[in-house]
C-alpha cells in the first residue's frame, strides 16, 4: 500500500487496489467467517437488521470481537425512522453499542435517517470523546452545522456527485471534520476524491493528505 492512499472510510465492497485503504463494513450475520478476514473492518448491528438476529447473541459477539485489532470501528450503527423496529428499541441497541465502543475506545460509524434530533440528544447525553462518523451525509446545512458543533465527522459518498446541497456543505466543511466513502455504491473512491478536489478547488493529493490527517486523528494511528 502506498504511503498516502485513498481512504474509503466506509464500504461494503473489498478492493485489491493497493492505492486504496478501505474499512469494510462486516455483515453481522457472518460471524462464522470473521476470523478469516484479512481486511480492516467495522462491526456493528445496523438498525435495519435488529429484527433479523438474535439480539443477545449478536451483541455479545460484537462485544467479543470489538477489541480485535482488525476491527477499527463499531458500525454501522444508528437510528432510522424507516426501519421496521420501534424507535425505543433502536435507541437501546444503539446506546448499547456506543457503550461497547467506549469500552474499547474505538470510533463509531453511524447510519441516521430522519432521526438527527434524537442522535444529537444522545450525543449530548453520552459526553464521550469517542469520534462519531456520520456516514453517507446528504442532509441539510442546519443539521450538518449541528453535527459539526458536536464534533462529529461527516463522511460523503455518492451524493457528493449528484446533489448541489451536499456539494455546498462539503465546500464549506472544515478540513478536520470530513471523510469520503463508497458505501454500497459501484463507484470507485477515486471518482469521489476527484469530485471533492474540484469542489474544494484543490488537488486530489491535497484532499488525500487532509483525509489522512483526519484518519490518524480519528483512529489514533501513527
Helical run tally? 8
Q: Examine the coordinates and then state which fold CATH places here, giving the name of the CATH topology.
A: TIM Barrel
How much is the radius of gyration in Å?
17 Å
How many DSSP E strands? 8
Name the CATH homologous superfamily: Metal-dependent hydrolases
- Beta-strand residue fraction: 15-25%
Helix content: 40-55%
What's the number of domains?
A: 1
The sequence of SSEs as H and E is EEEHEHEHEHEHHEHH
Q: Mind telling me which CATH architecture this is?
A: Alpha-Beta Barrel
Q: Please tell me the overall pLDDT.
A: 93
End-to-end separation in angstroms reads: 16 Å
Low confidence ranges: none
Q: Quick one: CATH class? A: Alpha Beta
Coarse morphology: globular
> How is the largest sheet built, in terms of strand order?
1-2-3-4-5-6-7-8
Biggest sheet details: 8 strands, parallel
Structural class: alpha/beta
